[in-house]
Amino acid sequence: MTTFTRLDRSVVGSWWWTVDRWTLVAVGVLVLMGGVMVLAASPAIAARLNLDSFHFVRRQFMYLPMAVIMIFAISLLSPLWVRRLAVVSFGFFSLLTIATLLVGPEVKGAHRWLQFGSFTLQPTEFLKPSFAVVAAWMFAEQRRSDEIPGNLISIALFAFVITLLLLQPDVGMTLVVCAVWFAQFFLAGLPIIWVVMFVVVGIVSAAAAYSLFPHVASRVDRFMDPSGGGNYQIERAMEAFQTGGFFGVGPGDGSVKRQLPDAHTDFIFAVLGEEFGVVVCLIVVALFAFIVLRGFSRLLEEKNFFVVLAAAGLLTQFGLQAVINIGVNLRLMPTKGMTLPFISYGGSSMFALALLMGMLLALSRRRAGTGELK
């Protein structure tokens, strides 16, 4: 059995003593729970689609080890190489996002995916974490030197990204990107006049989205007036939590997965609530909260401004995605097709989250020095 001592100067040995092992454990638990939940929720979906019962299970268990390897490999990088990876990823997935508008299939009125054989790729899932790191770099450069218009470059990139998202259209993801970018800009020392301006722009944009996108208006209307109908998935999800109670009906014994079209993706938290109960749901929520809060606590001692902004953006994005998915399942916000990190089924989601978590672990590693990137 291989053991690492503090004197071990190998790449893996150094990684082991500098990486946040508690976050690794929390992520590992989420990944394991995700495997269990896909195993519990997806056979009913596969049967409904006339597929082999373990169609989604086999695919997810093929994705999981690759995602784990991806997290480990990226977490070995220095902050400088994380930045370089983000720049390359941002450019590459921006091109693929443009390609979705030109050649991507239309699904439910949106062009968000590219088909590669049996694998469907959603480039914007990878664009989100890459943009967060690139934006952090620009904000940090502005603070380092006024000769580089980092804020203006970041604003231009932000406008570029949200334009691509709205053209698909994907209003929900646009809101997530806006929230993450605004949080980073605020941490970077956003002037108060800009705060007021962005709040006004946000209110106007929300009203415009409601007016211009019928599916957005429909979701908001159904959320504000549940009695109006059209809330089939939300109603089934709420029934699942009521049926599950505190301790659930038992693994595999739930019925909601046979009624919900998205039980293995957007509404897997409802399946978790029915089969494992409120107690396990609270444990999952606690794991997400632990990862986010521990990540921010480690940033309190960080000297490099780019690392602080990049990691804060990634943590905000990770936590916000979990909050939105859980909030939708609990009817606390309008429906939005967003997966639960590391638990929902999906290759694009899994690999994009592996990219995010790998970069986050790399940025949050303990490093000696005065804040210079190495």
Automatic annotation (TrEMBL):
Pathway: Cell wall biogenesis; peptidoglycan biosynthesis
Gene Ontology biological process terms in this record: cell division; cell wall organization; peptidoglycan biosynthetic process; regulation of cell shape
Membrane topology: Multi-pass membrane protein
GO MF annotation terms: lipid-linked peptidoglycan transporter activity; peptidoglycan glycosyltransferase activity
Localization per Swiss-Prot or TrEMBL: Cell membrane
Reaction(s) this enzyme catalyzes, per UniProt: [GlcNAc-(1->4)-Mur2Ac(oyl-L-Ala-gamma-D-Glu-L-Lys-D-Ala-D-Ala)](n)-di-trans,octa-cis-undecaprenyl diphosphate + beta-D-GlcNAc-(1->4)-Mur2Ac(oyl-L-Ala-gamma-D-Glu-L-Lys-D-Ala-D-Ala)-di-trans,octa-cis-undecaprenyl diphosphate = [GlcNAc-(1->4)-Mur2Ac(oyl-L-Ala-gamma-D-Glu-L-Lys-D-Ala-D-Ala)](n+1)-di-trans,octa-cis-undecaprenyl diphosphate + di-trans,octa-cis-undecaprenyl diphosphate + H(+)
Protein name as it appears in the record: Probable peptidoglycan glycosyltransferase FtsW
Gene: ftsW
